[in-house]
Amino acid sequence: MYYEIKLNNNFKKKENKMKKYHVSKLENTEVILEDGIFASMSTKDAHEENLQHLCGVYFFDNLDQAHEFGRDQNDEYAIFEIVEHGIEYIKDIEYDSGAYFIETDDLLKAKLIEIWEF
User: Fold this and answer.
1) Taking 50 as the threshold, does the pLDDT of residue 115 lie above it?
2) Which of these, 36, 40, 45, 66, lies nearest to 55 by C-alpha position?
3) Distance CA 26, CA 9 (A)
4) No. of helices (H) and no. of strands (E), the chain
5) Domain limits at 95?
6) For residue 19, what are the CA distances in angstroms to 16, 66, 67, 114?
7) What confidence tens digit (pLDDT) does each residue in 30-84 have?
8) What is the H or E stretch that residue 91 is in?
9) Are the C-beta atoms of residues 112 and 66 closer than 8 Å to each other?
10) How many structural domains compose the chain?
11) Which residues contact 105 (CB under 8 A, 6 or more apart)?
């Protein structure tokens, strides 16, 4: 079940059962486990106005895309599952599907799913 609200030519959705996988550099693992995932400013280009200048956390809805992103960005990475429920999120239009952004200033609780070292 989810709810859609139109906002800035984009939809915010809220879904409790979607898996939310966040990819981070391996060096951030301990801090994320202790404190949670820190929000950061979106780095999207001006042509992606739906996420421009927002503070929050990116995530994927499936492990395959999370791994692909991790391999593209880092030699060593960790995948976390965001355990917060009922969070509103925005689709990241840079990707065809499966990538989202949670607009927040808060730390998000997460559990470690996998570590990849090459």
Assistant:
1) yes
2) 40
3) 35
4) 2, 9
5) 2-116
6) 9, 11, 14, 14
7) 999 999 999 887 665 544 555 566 788 999 999 999 999 999 887 799 999 999 8
8) strand 88-91
9) no
10) 1
11) 39, 55
